[in-house]
Specification:
homotetramer, mainly alpha, Tetracycline Repressor, domain 2, 74% helix, 0% strand, DNA-binding
Chain lengths: 214, 214, 214, 214
DNA sequence: GATGAATGAGACTTCATTCAT
DNA sequence: AATGAATGAAGTCTCATTCAT
C-alpha cells in the first residue's frame, strides 16, 4: 500500500494513469517523437499493458485527443453563466478558456499543435470537437445578434471564421504574455476582449470596451 | 518533353529542387513522418546528394522554414502600398497574406503546423520571422493611431498586444481557409478585416467595415 | 543436439553470449570493420536485442575491453604464488600472461590491437587496466630489489620505468607469439625471462637465466 | 607562384603531398575512420585526382605503409656506425629509432597501430619490412655474439623474439616518458638500455650498463 | 592535369509491436 | 492483472568510388 508502485489497480484507474502519461509525452515531444517506451515508463507500467488496454499508438493518441477536447469544452461551458448579456458571456468564456489551457499546457499542446500536424485520422477526430465548440460559440453569437436585433443574421460560415480568428488571437496573446515580462494574463485577456469586441476602429477613436465590474 | 530526369545540374539549381521537394513533403507528411528517401525521390536525386548539399534533416527543415518565411514576408511587404490610409494598408496586407498562404499551402503548413510542433531549434527559427511580421503590423497600427489623432495615445505595449492578436488571428484563419474547401483567400481576408476593424459589437449591430471600392 | 537456437534466455546469459560474439568479431575484424549485424548473428539474436542490452557499438566495445582486461589481470594474479623468490614469481607471472593471451587470442587482439587503434574513449579504458598491471609488476621488481639488498636502492621512478619496459616487451611478444605459428606460450615466456633477467650481454656471453626445475 | 595553392604540379610532387596527407589522416584517425574526402582536402586536391594517382584507399594505405617503413629503416641504418662495439651500436640504433618515431608520430602510428589492426593485405605488407629490420638486428646481435665468441649461436627465431621484445619495451617507455612529467626521453632511453643490456639481475646487484662517453 | 556532380551499398540506431509465461 | 524477452521494418547518415567535362 502506498502510491509508490501500487499493483493490481482496477482497469479504469490504470487507464487514466496511462492517458495522463500519454498526454504529457505527446504534448511535450510530439506524436511521432513520443515513444511507447517513454509513455509506459512514465505511467509506471510495462509496455504490453499499454497495448492490452489501448491497442496501439494511434488509438492511444486518439483517446488523448478526445479526452482533452471534452475537458476543454466542459471547462468553457462551465465558465459561462447563461443569464449574462453577450459581452459578459464572451468575457467569461475567454477567461475559462485561458485558464484551462494555462493549467493544462500538455493537453492544449496535444489539441492545438499535435492533432493538427499529423494528418488523418487525428484531424477528423479533432474536427468533431471543433464542431461542438463552434456550435457553442455560434449559439453565443447568435444570441447576441438576436439581442441586438441584428438582421439579416450572420451566416454560419462567418461565425466559424470569427471563432477561428478569436482562438488564434487568444493563442497568440497567451504566448506573448508568457514570453513578455510584466504583461499579466489579465491584461492580455483585456486586450483581446477590446480587440474582439470594440474593434480597432473604436480603439483608434478612444472608445474601448469596458470590462464589467467583477 | 519536360525535365524528365535532367542530370548534372549546377548546384544552386539542384538545391532549389531539393528544397521544393522538401517543403512539399514536410508540409504534407510532417517533419518526423517525412523521410529523406521520399524527399530525395521527389527531387529526382539520390539521397547522398541531399546530404551533400543540405547536411542533415534538421538543417534541411530549418532551411525550408527560412525560405518560406522570407517568401511570405516579402509577399506581404510587396502587397502594401505605403501611400494608402491605415485601413487600406491593413486590408492590402491581409489580402496579400491570405493570397500567399493559399497559393503555397505546403509552405504555409511548414510554417504554421510543422515548425511549431517539433520543438527547438525550429520554434526559435520561426520566432524571429514572426517577430518581423509583428513589428510590421505594429508599425501599421501605430500609423493608424496617429492618423486618427487618438488621444490619449495608445501605449506602445498596447499596440504590440493588438498586433500580436491580429497576427495570431490571421495565422489561425489562414490554416482554416486552407483546410476548408470553398473558402477563398479574399473571404478570409474580409472576415478578419471585419473582425479586427469593426469589432464584434459592430458586427452584431450590422455595422460592418466596408472594403474600399477596388 | 546442442544449443541450436535457444530462445527466451535470462538477460545475464544472453549478455554473455553477446559479449562472446562481440569479442570474437572485434578481435578478428577490428572495431570499425566489425558490424553490429555480424555480432548479432554470431550471438544468435536480433540486432535490437543487442542494442537493448548493450546500448551502442561504443559501449559494447568498452564492455569488451573491460571484461577482457579483468580476465587477463585475474589470470596473471592467479598465476603468481606469493611465497616464491623474485625470479620465480616473475617467471610464473609471465607464463600465466602468455598462456592466457594464447588461449584467448580474440580477447588479446581486442586489448592489444583494437583498443589502441581507435582513439578515445577506448585508449583511456585500456590505460587504467594497464596501470594496474604495471603497478603489479612494480611491486614484484621492488620486492626483488629488497630481496637482493640492492645498495644504493633503486629509485622509485627507475622501478616504474623498468616495469613499463617489461610490460611493453611482454605485450609485444604476446602479439608476435599469437601471430607466429609454432611459437608456444612457454617459449615466449622463456625468451622474455631471459631478456629481462639476464640481459642481452649475458645472452651474448652464453650465460642465460635458468628456469627453475618445475 | 607561391605555396598557397599551386596548380599543375608534376605528378611526383603531387603524389608526395597526397601521401603526406594520407599518413597524417590514417595515423590520427585510423584506417577505417579516415575518409578519402578528408585526405583529399588535406592534400589540397580533388578526390578524383587521388584516385587517378593512387587507385584506391587500400592501395593508398599500402603505399603509406611502404613509405614509412622504408623511412624508419633508413633512419636506423643511418644512425648506426659500423665500426663500434656491439653495445655502442645498439645504443646508437635505439637512439635513432626513438628519434625517428618521435619526429614522425603519424608515420609510426600507421606502422605500429594501424597496419597491424586491419588484417590482410596490410599485415603482409608490414611483414616484409619487419623481416628487413629483423635481418638488420640479427646482423647486429650476430656480430656481438661473434665478438663475444658466443657458441653455440643464437637461433634466428630467438633473435626475432628479442627484437620484438626490444621494440615493445621501447614503445612502452616512449609512451610513459611522454605522459609522465619530468621524465626525459634520454632517461627513458638509458632505462631501456640498462634493462636490455644488463638485465634485471645485474641491476639488482648494482652492476648497470654504462653509457659510452658521448 | 584536374574537378564538380552524382550514387550504390551499407553502417548504426530506434520503434511499434508481439509472444510466452 | 501483468511482464521480461524478443524482433521486423524503417530511418538517418557516411563513404568509397565513378562519370563527364
Amino acid at each position: 500500500m502506498g502510491a509508490v508502485k501500487s499493483k493490481r489497480m482496477p482497469r479504469a484507474v490504470r487507464e487514466q494513469q496511462m492517458m495522463d502519461a500519454a498526454v504529457r509525452t505527446f504534448g511535450q515531444r510530439g506524436y511521432r517523437a513520443a515513444s511507447m517506451d517513454e509513455i509506459a515508463e512514465l505511467a509506471g507500467v510495462s509496455k504490453p499493458l499499454v497495448y492490452l488496454y489501448l491497442n496501439s499508438k494511434e488509438e492511444l493518441f486518439s483517446a488523448c485527443i478526445r479526452r482533452e477536447a471534452n475537458a476543454l469544452l466542459e471547462a468553457v461551458r462551465a465558465g459561462v453563466e447563461p443569464g449574462l448579456p453577450a459581452d459578459g458571456q464572451l468575457w467569461a468564456g475567454l477567461r475559462a478558456f485561458f485558464l484551462h489551457t494555462a493549467e493544462n499546457p500538455d493537453g492544449w499542446s496535444v489539441l492545438h499543435r499535435q492533432a493538427r500536424s499529423h494528418g488523418e485520422p487525428f484531424v477528423s477526430e479533432l474536427g468533431s470537437m471543433r464542431d461542438e465548440i463552434v456550435a457553442f460559440v455560434t449559439g453565443l453569437i447568435g444570441a447576441a445578434a438576436r439581442e441586438a436585433h441584428r438582421d439579416p443574421a450572420l451566416a454560419d460560415r462567418d461565425v466559424v471564421g470569427l471563432a477561428q480568428a478569436l482562438v488564434g488571437a487568444a493563442e497568440s496573446l497567451a504566448g506573448w504574455a508568457n514570453d513578455t515580462p510584466d504583461v499579466s494574463a489579465k491584461e492580455a485577456a483585456a486586450t483581446l476582449m477590446n480587440f474582439a469586441w470594440a474593434g480597432l476602429e473604436n480603439l483608434m477613436h478612444a472608445r474601448p470596451w469596458q470590462p464589467p465590474a467583477a
